[in-house]
Batch of 2 targets.
Target 1
Amino acid sequence: MSKGTRIGALVVLAVAVFVLTSALYTVSEVQQVIITQFGKPVGDPVTTAGLKVKIPFIQEVNAIDKRILEWDGSPSDMPTKDKLYISVDLFARWHIVDPLQYFLRLRDERSAQSRLDDILGSETRNAVAKHELIEIIRTTKDRIPLRDSLLTGAQQEQKMGSLVPIRKGRKLVELEIFNAAAEKVLVFGIELLDIRFKRINYNQSVRPKIYDRMISERRQIAERFLSEGNGEAARIRGNRVRELNKIQSEAYREVEEIRGLADAKATEIYARAYNQSPESVEFYEFTRTMQAYKTIIADNSTLVLSTNSDLFKFLKGMDPAPDAGKE
Amino acid sequence: MSWQPGNTGRPGQRSNGANPGAELEELIRLGQKRLKQAFPGGSPRGKVGFVIVILLALAAWSAYYTVPSDSVAVVQRFGKYLKEVPPGLHFKVPFGVDVASIVPVKRQLKQEFGFSTPGAQDPFQSARDGRQETVMVTGDLNSALVEWVVQYRIADPAKFLFEVRRPLSTLRHVSESVMREVVGDRTVDEVITIGRQEIETEALIKMQALSTKYEMGISIDQVQLKNINPPGPVQESFNEVNQAQQEKEKLINEARRDYNKVIPLAEGQKDQRIREADGYRLKRINEAEGDASRFNALFEEYSKAPEVTRRRIYIETMQDILPKLQSKIIVDDQIRGILPLLNLDAPRNGEKP
């Protein structure tokens, strides 16, 4: 072959390759494509993946995402029906169901996100303003909370530790926002899949009030514990005094009873012995008096005795009259 | 450029299966050598040959890929899903015709909320805005700080890649939303102390349901709560409650201790006194009985000879008493007054008339 033909062949090859690359394009699993010709869309959107053909150079490929996309709103402050300022952060899921419509109305994703910001933002604000804060926080209407057994007494006193009741709940509010917004975005070829509250927090200005309330609640519980403790301690102390008195007085009573019985019994025994006959009475008096003399008449006593006594009568004579002069 | 034929026969070279890369290199070199032989000399042709060789090298390099043992690869041809490929070394059509995306399906991945462990490679493992995600409102309109971890796996790689854009970011949002929903149904006491287990379980169930509904190809394995605290300014008063509880216990225990110190002792003393009284009773009765029987015995004998016994007792007693007296004065009964005769200074013997 000659050199010229060879170069010509190479040039033809290059041109062919060039045209081919403009005529072929790939559609990924995550894409759907609108073909535009001189800026205007032609034909149906290409939604299946693979290698496709188009008119080179004249037609352009505009790829649109086929996947489920996310809208994440930035947190914004808004008031609830009960005048609490909260910061609300939502997220939503959407996808492009009508790529042609989407392409015509919005053209690219930045405008789509901005539209969603507007629509979802305003619908959220509406819904939040129509409901009390608790409707957005809680979901299950009739949930009974677990109670901390240690705190229960104190809490019931202060009416704390229970859930604030709701009528609708978070799910229904989300549904309201969803229904209102879904309609509005349909015209852009967008289908809204769902909406969920991501974060709900008290606004900075509201927080001190909430914290104060929490602090005072806890303080009340603490004080109640202290007073309960003191009360119980006082009760126990009172009990102690009462029990002590009771025991000691019972002891006294029983002791006296026993002593009384003892004395009575002893007296009975003595009487039985000493009183068995008039002679025993007299004999007892005699012996007992003799006994008494032994202790009464002691060392340094002075006794004046008569010679008429039974002991000294023999001093006068050998044989004085028996029992004479005895007084 | 040092392609030497001698390289192929070098001793110590590894065998086929263990190092296919080296083998390919060898093939490339052989091809190059042959091309060079096909186009001997001439610089334009040499350059073309060189370019062709480079292209072949690039083709070879982009034609094989390894899938790590904890992953699979999803292969797309011209963008269209082709197949799922297990771990190992595989070949694909080069130059961008086939694209292989590697998805770690066996590894357990996690996302952290409210805190972060450093050194994470996944950008979605921790939050972008730090502390914000821990603050939550509870069902009794109080506030709490909650940290937690979600552990998940990629269960369906095709869904993970194709259904949702940025599924991990969606997972983060789902996780936060669910946790707030669950916490929002509970009192602050449940969140901080007694309801943790329940919260973890319910959050897991809800997240799994949402993950399935959203078709992210992710399966949630576990939700674990980490630190949960009342908000900063309030923490001290929560501690006060604990302290007050302990103080209450202490007061009651002290009172009980005092009670226990005194009452059993008093009971014991009561017992003691009763026993003592009983002892007194026995003593009295025994003494009385002893005295009585002694008297009875004496009286019986006395009754047999009263006069004599009487005198005997009388005289014995006198004999016992009188010697001890300091002074005895025996006066005749017919004397009217003893005073003139009485010597009060020397009371040794009585005077007799």
Note: Residues 232-304 of chain B form the longest helix (73 residues).
Target 2
Amino acid sequence: MADRASLRDRAFREFFDAEFRSLRRLAYLLTGNWTEAEDLAQETMVRVYRAWGQIAERDRPGAYARTVMVNRHRSMLRRTMVEAKYALHRVSDTVTEGAEADVELWEALKALPVKERQAVVLRFYEDLPIAEVAIALDVPPGTVKSMTHRALGRLREVLGPEKVPEMEDV
Amino acid sequence: MTEDLRDALHRAATAGEPAVGDAFARFAAVKRRAAIARSATVAVVGLTAAATLFFMLPGLNSGDSGGSLTGGDATSSPPFKPVKHYEDRAAGFAFDYPSSWDVFNPSVGRSVDVAPAGDEALSVDTKVAFDCGAADRCAYVAERPTRTNVRVTWRDPAQVVALLASRTARGAVVATEPTLMDGRAGERHTITFPAEPSNLPHISEGPHPGYMFTWCASCEIASIVIPRWTGTASLLVEITSPAHDPASSADIDVIIQSLARA
């Protein structure tokens, strides 16, 4: 029993070491804030750890982790987005982190509805196929296509057609 | 063109990236805190299913508050567990708490009459101090239908876990995941409850419908049920903490202050 537990922990540790950085970067693209990204990535890993016994045998526990992350991100936003609108204490909005890089991109991403932002990030940063994005977002593949189409349209308005593909090009 | 967007996202994903450092050590700390909160979640969900909500008597000076403590089971008993009822009409508070709780040790606090509920500004604070003592959970409910700030000063220990729970229309209890608020002394945290109840979990049934905000510090959990608002409201949690003394009880000063509608 103890051996099984330590094997499990060792396997999870390997997964953690391999995936944490990329998960945190994904979280950063979703949140725009490294502190929140760290929190989101850590919360995601806690959940993955809890479910490790069931998911460890899967080919891609990383995909599970990403699904967990987008769900957690939405939960986080439910709590904080109203705060950002009404609160006396502003939610950190530090798009200025790394702002030299792509302020326009950040602003455009932030302006997207949550699921559209998630769809764009999963499709174009994680390079996930539509089917996997659909699983992560818990929507049908057709919805992923329409969300991506709308999101790209919005991004194109801000960033210009030269930077954002038409849906047919994707 | 697709490459431009991908490139931009990849650049953005690493801009200003802090060092990973000992991420696993941080993970271990988060996991520990989450385990505590999960115990609280299970307890909260279980008791909420069995009783109306968690309530706790405030420690009011009876001379100031006009509150009354009834010793028997209340008529507003939940389906599964009898509750006792506490009212403080002058301050506009009422509580139901499980009758099995016998841990309340009222500490002297101060309460001030507040204006009736309505659109007008309420100009006074009501400070309630109560002692969770050995209770697993403490709760406070404010029946203020206007905007309400509830400032909670948590003395001991430093860490506060905020947990939102709700009850669906069919009576099933749904608990959100805990929000860890790693409090340090003097910090302030805000959770805002919106005008539209659908944006956040809310209690739609029971004698005190509203939003429930529950927090736990080393599993001494406190809950606040805020009635549904017509406007916006904020819950301010101000964490003040001396060095943690396991032998000490956790005192909570709850300051309720209503704001004028903007």
Note: Chain A touches chain B through 52 residues (CB under 8 Å).
